[in-house]
């Protein structure tokens, strides 16, 4: 038989098999856009801003719909109710973590973020307990953040109010906090070992966009050296890039809206003054500053779809049959930018977190760290860092842009895992 004919027949069989498999699976799953054979819905997605695609499809198919990435079906959850029902109300069933080939090659399933099952539960419990024990040691985590905030101020003073891109310095500060917690020692921002460490984490991010003495002879223990190294790596990677990017984006927003900055500085002056170091207790007396920090996180929508989850067992969800192992994408954008909870969600407005009397107002829709059993382990650390770093900076400096604030571009790059702010330059003018 002609080889060309054989090839055509084989491809036709594969195509028919693909169509049959998709149609049989789709009958049990939530509705969604019709996938093409082999490639699925790939060409129907706006790869430059997948948030727009999910918003569009949710209006057609509802808050729970199915997308095909290639031949693989993926469950998409859109809106607060669907996200809460899955991640909180059915937290155990939705607690698995998807592992892509790239991630698998980097982590090999070790660490907190990308492990699963018994391994994940034990490592997460151990890590949370260890962080709490660090906080109760001779020097609390708050002390270490305060120390680093002062070091950050000194580095900013060295710029002599000249314009510069703050990316590097703002990355050093949260990374050094993790170093101080894990190694009990911070590093100079020019230390070569420290710079190498930061470069390795940046490299891994680009590819994506002591129980150990007690347990080494236990063959069934999850506390292996590989797991402990993986967990430490997760703390560095997640605790450095997310916090530094949030601060970098936050300072850009404060440049864009100088009236907001002025109100924060007035509150700092009234509550803290010029000479005392900001502390976490101040947050209770600074509702406007607290609202600004929350609004920065809400507005920038740092991780629009967070990391993919996996269903841990066959479940019934909203009258649909969701099979074990199915990947789940949760749209945090749809929660953080909900227009009923946050009027004019695409506008930066600290009033979203203030009541009519100017008091801080909590919101269940505030999910920048995700929710449920896979909520970010470093949420508490990140919240401390953001408040202490930003208040310490604004206590010591006025912010100046090279262009008129009205002309500043605050449009995010959303083509990767995180929403990144555009590059900009800033001057820190000593008060």
Automatic annotation (TrEMBL):
Gene3D superfamilies (alphabetical): Cytochrome P450 (1.10.630.10)
UniProt protein name: unspecific monooxygenase
Keyword Nucleotide-binding included in the entry's annotation: no
Principal place of residence: endoplasmic reticulum
Endpoints of the signal sequence: 1-27
Family stated for the protein in its record: Belongs to the cytochrome P450 family.
Cofactor requirements of the protein: heme
Localization terms from the record: Endoplasmic reticulum membrane; Microsome membrane
Gene name tied to this protein: LOC103597628
Enzyme class: oxidoreductase
Pfam families: p450 (PF00067)
InterPro entries: Cyt_P450, Cyt_P450_CS, Cyt_P450_E_grp-I, Cyt_P450_sf, Cytochrome_P450_fam2
Taxonomic source organism: Galeopterus variegatus
Keywords for the protein's UniProt record, in alphabetical order: Endoplasmic reticulum, Heme, Iron, Membrane, Metal-binding, Microsome, Monooxygenase, Oxidoreductase, Signal
């Amino acid at each position: 038989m002609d080889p060309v004919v054989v090839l055509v027949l084989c491809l036709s069989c594969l195509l028919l098999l693909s169509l049959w498999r998709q149609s049989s699976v789709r009958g049990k799953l939530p509705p969604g856009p019709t996938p093409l054979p082999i490639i699925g819905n790939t060409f129907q997605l706006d790869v430059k801003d997948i948030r727009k695609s999910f918003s569009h499809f949710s209006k057609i198919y509802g808050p729970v719909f199915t997308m095909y990435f290639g031949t693989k079906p993926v469950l998409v959850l859109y809106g607060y109710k669907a996200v809460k029902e899955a991640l909180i109300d059915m937290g155990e069933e939705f607690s698995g973590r998807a592992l892509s080939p790239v991630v698998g090659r980097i982590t090999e399933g070790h660490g907190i973020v990308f492990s699963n099952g018994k391994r994940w539960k034990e490592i997460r419990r151990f890590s949370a307990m260890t962080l709490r024990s660090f906080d109760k040691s001779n020097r609390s985590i708050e002390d270490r953040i305060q120390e680093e905030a002062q070091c950050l101020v000194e580095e900013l003073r060295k710029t002599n109010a000249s314009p510069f891109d703050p990316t590097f310095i703002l990355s050093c500060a949260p990374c050094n906090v993790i170093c101080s917690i894990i190694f009990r020692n911070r590093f100079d921002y020019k230390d070569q070992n420290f710079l190498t460490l930061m470069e390795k984490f940046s490299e891994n991010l680009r590819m994506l966009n002591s129980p150990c003495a007690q347990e080494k002879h236990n063959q069934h223990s999850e506390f292996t050296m590989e797991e402990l190294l993986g967990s430490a790596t997760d703390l560095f990677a997640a605790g450095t890039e997310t916090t530094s990017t949030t601060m970098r984006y936050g300072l850009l927003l404060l440049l864009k809206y100088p009236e907001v900055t002025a109100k924060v500085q007035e509150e700092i002056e009234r509550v803290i003054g010029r000479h005392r170091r900001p502390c976490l207790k101040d947050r209770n007396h600074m509702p406007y500053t607290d609202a600004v920090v929350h609004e920065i996180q809400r507005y920038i929508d740092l991780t629009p779809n967070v990391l993919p989850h996996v269903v841990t067992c066959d479940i019934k969800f909203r009258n649909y049959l969701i099979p074990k192992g199915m990947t789940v994408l949760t749209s945090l954008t749809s929660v953080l930018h909900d227009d009923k909870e946050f009027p004019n969600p695409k506008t930066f407005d600290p009033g979203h977190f203030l009541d009519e009397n100017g008091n801080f107002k909590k919101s269940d829709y505030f999910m920048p760290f995700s929710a449920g059993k896979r909520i970010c382990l470093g949420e508490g650390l990140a919240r401390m860092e953001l408040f202490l770093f930003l208040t310490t900076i604004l206590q010591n400096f006025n912010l100046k842009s090279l262009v008129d604030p009205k002309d500043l571009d605050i449009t995010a790059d959303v083509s990767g895992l995180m929403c990144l702010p555009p590059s900009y330059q800033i001057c820190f003018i000593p008060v």
